[in-house]
């Protein structure tokens, strides 16, 4: 997260080249079995030949041999930060204790995750287990050729209805959504608002007025860790735009560009105008996410874009004046819709390499994760809305509970990040960086975003971009 700013074009080209080469990678198809769990036995789709059956039997024998030697070690690649989430660490530990197997977690740096992971897959370095978010971003990893098809797994019926679509590509379930079902919007310090006589805004205009009033009181309205790029979270403002199915269909078939959508210009202008007015403070270009807790906790800034569960998984409540419960959450007001917008959960998936020698053990691990007895241990006390219907040990955040009716009015699913082909939170954020420092105007910023997105879609040979 803390790499120095790089040009978006270089990153986009790197991703597009590896994505294009990846389309040809994969492995031999073959039947795979879970082996030890008859009740949840799962077969991959490419398992209809005698050759495939023999391959699976060979893998099963290898797995048995490994167990005799003291257990199987499953290699897992994932975003370094994501693999360290408390519930992930809990499930890894529980699995190792119960089975004697090991999870070799190899975290990949956040800023370089897609480039590094895609390169590994293209060169055939595909782990037993892989953590990645769903949607179009998963297509670059050739899921049909590389990942186990879990469509018929018993646990699919246990996934929450608003989460299930994120597990699928072309109606095939490829991964288990083992993640926080968080609510995203704008944190606000309730005590500061009360002290300053500020009411929680309900519209974009009222939000702008709140920012100015905080400025006049000598308080930074919003903490924006621009240096780290991703915390700008500009995708929140894109959800209302691409909730329009016509916009989403046309952007994904190259019939329109970002620059053709007025609300995208409004989004870019909101970031530039807010920065110029001082709403992000004086040092936003060098501010990093590492200091988010400190700045909010000491009251230097009154608001920040984020997700509710962060206050209970990452925020250091004990070290600062303001505790987690001193914050509320309201919609993100970033220029694209009058009433603002909450973003629903965007869940990371656990996927299994269907061509690996440890495929049976990898499937067993995912089924282990999907067992209510086990996921309720892993998520015990975690502040989150449920991903699974059988979750009983989680606790929803007070921020979510207080905003639940508001969410019903202006809440939207996560759309931009998982559904726009070629979307990159980091690369798009770098375009906004260029806008904020004055290297481009709003039109130039959107052109950079379009160019990067189109390169990825073209490399993936998406219809309309070939």
UniProtKB/TrEMBL annotation:
Q: Which PROSITE patterns match?
A: PROKAR_LIPOPROTEIN
* Record field: compositional bias (Basic and acidic residues): 31-66
Q: Which InterPro entries match?
A: Bact_solute-bd_prot1, SBP
Identify the PANTHER family for this entry. Answer: ARABINOSE-BINDING PROTEIN-RELATED (PTHR43649), DIACETYLCHITOBIOSE BINDING PROTEIN DASA (PTHR43649:SF12)
Signal peptide: which range, if any? 1-23
Q: What is this protein called?
A: Multiple sugar-binding protein
* Pfam families linked to this entry: SBP_bac_1
Which intervals of the chain are annotated as region Disordered? Answer: 30-66
Source organism of this protein record:
Robinsoniella peoriensis
Q: Does the keyword Nucleotide-binding apply?
A: no
Instruction: Give me the gene this protein comes from.
Output: msmE_46
What does the UniProt keyword field contain? Signal
């Amino acid at each position: 997260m803390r790499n120095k700013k790089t040009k978006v074009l270089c990153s986009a080209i790197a991703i597009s080249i590896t994505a294009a080469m990846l389309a040809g990678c994969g492995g031999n198809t073959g039947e795979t079995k879970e082996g030890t769990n008859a009740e949840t036995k799962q077969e991959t789709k490419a398992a209809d030949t005698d050759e495939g059956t023999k391959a699976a039997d060979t893998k099963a024998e290898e797995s048995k041999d490994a167990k005799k030697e003291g257990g199987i070690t499953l290699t897992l690649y994932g975003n370094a930060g994501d693999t360290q989430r408390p519930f992930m660490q809990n499930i890894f530990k529980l699995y190792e204790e119960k089975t004697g197997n090991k999870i070799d977690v190899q975290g990949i740096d956040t800023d370089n995750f897609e480039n590094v992971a895609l390169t590994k897959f293209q060169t055939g370095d595909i782990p037993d287990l892989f953590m990645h978010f769903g949607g179009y971003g998963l297509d670059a990893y050739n899921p049909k050729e590389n990942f186990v098809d879990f469509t018929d797994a018993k646990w699919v019926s246990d996934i929450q209805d608003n989460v299930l679509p994120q597990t699928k590509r072309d109606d095939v379930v490829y991964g288990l959504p083992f993640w926080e079902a968080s609510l995203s919007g704008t944190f606000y310090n309730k005590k500061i608002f009360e002290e300053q006589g500020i009411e929680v805004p309900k519209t974009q205009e009222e939000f702008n007025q709140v920012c100015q009033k905080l400025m006049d009181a000598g308080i930074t309205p919003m903490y924006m860790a621009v240096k780290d790029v991703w915390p700008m979270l500009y995708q929140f403002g894109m959800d209302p735009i691409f909730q329009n199915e016509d916009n989403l269909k046309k952007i994904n078939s190259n019939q329109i560009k970002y620059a053709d959508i007025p609300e995208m210009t409004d989004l870019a202008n909101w970031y530039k105008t807010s920065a110029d007015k001082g709403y992000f403070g004086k040092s936003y270009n060098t501010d990093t996410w590492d200091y988010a807790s400190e700045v909010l906790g000491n009251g230097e800034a009154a608001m920040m874009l984020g997700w509710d569960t962060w206050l209970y998984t990452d925020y250091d409540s004990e070290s600062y004046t303001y505790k987690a419960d001193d914050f509320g959450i309201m919609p993100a007001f970033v220029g694209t819709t009058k009433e603002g917008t909450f973003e629903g959960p965007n869940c990371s998936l656990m996927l299994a390499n269907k061509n690996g020698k440890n495929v049976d053990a990898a499937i067993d691990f995912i089924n282990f994760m999907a067992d209510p007895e086990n996921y309720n241990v892993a998520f015990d006390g975690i502040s989150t809305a449920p991903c699974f219907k059988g979750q009983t040990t989680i606790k929803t955040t007070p921020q979510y509970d207080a905003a639940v009716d508001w969410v019903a009015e202006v809440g939207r699913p996560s759309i931009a990040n998982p559904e726009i082909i070629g979307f990159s939170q980091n690369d798009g954020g770098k375009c906004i960086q260029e806008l904020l420092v004055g290297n481009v105007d709003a039109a130039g910023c959107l052109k950079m975003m379009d160019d990067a997105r189109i390169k990825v879609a073209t490399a993936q040979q998406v219809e309309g971009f070939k």
